[in-house]
Every structure is written in structure tokens, then in C-alpha cells.
Amino acid sequence: MDTYKAIISKRDVRHYTDQPIGDEVMQRILQAGRMAGSAKNEENNRLILVTDQAVQDALVHAGDFASWIGTSAMIVGFASPAESLRLFDVGRQAQNMMIAAHAEGVATCPVTLQHADKARAAVGLPDDWEMPMIITMGWPIDDVPDSPLKRERVAMDDLVRHNTWS
Q1: 116 pLDDT more than 90
Q2: I want to staple 36 with a disulfide (CB 3.0 to 4.6 A). Which of 4, 92, 118, 138 is the partner?
Q3: Residue 149: pLDDT above 70?
Q4: Residue 152: what pLDDT?
Q5: 41 burial via Cβ count (<10 Å: 0-12, 13-18, 19+)
Q6: Which residues are bridge partners to 16 per DSSP?
Q7: What are phi and psi of 109, to 5 degrees?
Q8: Torsion over CA of 73, 71, 57 and 11, rounded to 10 degrees?
Q9: What's the pLDDT at 65?
Q10: 8-142 is a CATH 3.40.109.10 domain
């Protein structure tokens, strides 16, 4: 799959089989995240790979819209020291990984964790670290249902402004 097709055809999926993700595929996905740029090239983020069901179940309580996340084959948490947390860097790393996963046939979905204390406790992070988001990963079920929020994308003419707002 070429890069452009991977980007425009990727969708967030919340329904997975119970098949594990193989090491070779996972290493390519992790490498895609590793290669994301970071502000001042500091590379502050660390990845926490969660396959243990008890830890996944604990992470359910860290997000307001995360009741389903324990059904994934793997959760990847993005942790960073609180003092140097840069959400843009987290997003760049997550998007690289989600596109690489999609190109491998692995489905993903990003999830914001609104309750830092519960996220920290679930994975044993030090008090001065945060894990503001995760992505779930797994092989998609054969008949992935449409999202109840499915809609047409904003038209290009409504999305893009040239030079000024007006």
C-alpha cells in the first residue's frame, strides 16, 4: 500500500479479533513511531505496550470514552515526563504508528485518557510522568460495523483558507 492510500483509507476501528500481533509486524509499527520527529529532537516519549488483560481493564477507567479498549490485542501508551509533555509530539508518533499499522493490515484507534491518576496507576508510571493517550491495536474483525458517528468529511473549500480568514 502506498503512503497516500494508507493515509486516506485509514479509519479508526474498535472491533478486533483475538489474534495476537506478531513480533515482526509490531517491530515495524514501533519503528515508525520511533522515527517520528520531536520538538528540539528531545525524544521524551516512551511507549508502554500493554497485552495483560488486567492492565487493559484498569486503563478502561482512565478514559471517559474507553469502555471498549480491553478488547484489543494490544494497547500502546504514550508516556512522557509531565514537565516536558508535548502533545504534538505524541500525536506525530501515534499517527506514524497508526498509518504503519494500517499498511500492515492492523486496525487501530486513538484514545484520550482524561484521568491521569488512573492511567498512571494502571501502568505504574512515576508521579512525575503522564500518559495522555493510547492507541488500541488488533486485527480487525471481518465485518467491521460503521461508526455511529460516520459522516462526510468537511469539503475542501470549507476546510482551506488562503492567506487570510476571509
Answers
A1: yes
A2: 92
A3: no
A4: 85
A5: exposed
A6: 140
A7: -155, 130
A8: 80
A9: 92
A10: yes
